[in-house]
Amino acid sequence: MVTSLRSRVAAANTWVADRPPPGPFRAGFWRSPIRGPWLTSVLGAVLLVGLPVMFATGLLSYLAYNPWLPGNDGRHASGVLTFVPFHWPASPAWGYRVTQGLHVTLGVVLVPVILAKLWSVIPKLFVWPPVASPAQALERLSLFLLVGGAMLTFATGLLNIQYWYRFPGSFYVLHFYAAWVFVVSAAAHVALKIPTMRAALRERRVRDELRTPLAGTTPEPYTPNGLVSARPAAPTISRRGALGLVGAGSLTAFVMVAPQTVGGPVSRLGLLSPRGGYDPGGGPNDFGVNTTAGEARITPALVGGLWRLEIAGGPSPIVLSRADLAAMEQHEATLAIACVEGWSSGNQRWRGVRLRDLATLSGVADPASVHVESLQDGGAFGRGRLAGNQIAAGDSLLALQVNDADLSLDHGFPARIIVPNNPGVRNTKWVKRLTFET
């Protein structure tokens, strides 16, 4: 009886396998003569270098928010790494600008490579029957996680740098977990495919293939259930041309996104770096912002003569006007604002009161953190915590001026936080309260 059942199942599987639906599920659909292990392996080798760097810089970006401080991880809503005993350093001042700029730039540059890699293996996504055995089911699931994780990671990242936030949930949660799924799946995939990859790269030298024109382009040897078509069409592009096309796409992406990290006048060349239509105009405050005063619902009345800064945490709260702050010892720091979207304002000259002096004034001489609150009502955009080492840094300021002029309303007038090596969102604008905590 068992033998009979197995025979029936085998017959059913054969019947299904012999009747694929029309279109991409049929073996003759994919006929490109350049698709094969070699091209896939070359693209995979590029990703093998780029993805670990992108993932590492992404983790550094997460840690830069000091998720171990109460309330800070709410922006990411993940809590995965809050146990890490790592205090984000306040030096070098350009650290976050470089690491996050590299993360975003490399992510955009790798998009053509990811798409080409997906094209090179797309027949594997349309295998028929979809599930022929438990082992194949596991393989298909891992492939789904790999491709799905890659698409979600890159898609959310690209949408974020365009300031398109209409996600079905938090960008940070989607991007964070999609990246983990993608990287873990990719690591498992690489472990399984390294022998195939090494064999393919040994059979054809990259230098030789880059010298082969269209007329000399031939398919790789056919193997059942592989990437090489059983009935390849005549070539319309060489492997050299395909790699050149991918390289040109990556170079174009680099030129369009990298200038935003440099900042200053060069940032205007970054065509993939919109600032939400914001025009800072001319003068000392002529550099980019993510959120304008209008978007944050900050009006001149809120920051006028009645504005006061409350400093708490010590024996009793202290209330200061802007004139009181201006009368205190002023310090100047040359720092850039660097944001999670990868853009930088370029170095600006800030002037204001050191945070450590305000901590001493409050009666908390050696604070472990400070809770910064803004007039802006917007979750993590309006509040957050800085660590003790950031408070102690000599260039950490409650800034009143920039480039020898008062802050503009869009740049945080009457007072804003500016801390070296700090994500832009943590350089809170329109500050209303500082609570120093032990």
TrEMBL record:
The chain crosses the membrane at residues 38-65, 101-122, 143-165, 171-192. The keyword Ribosomal protein does not apply. It holds the Pfam family Oxidored_molyb. Residues 307-437 form the Oxidoreductase molybdopterin-binding domain. Keywords: Membrane, Transmembrane, Transmembrane helix. The keyword Transmembrane applies. Gene3D superfamilies: Oxidoreductase, molybdopterin-binding domain. This is Molybdopterin-dependent oxidoreductase.
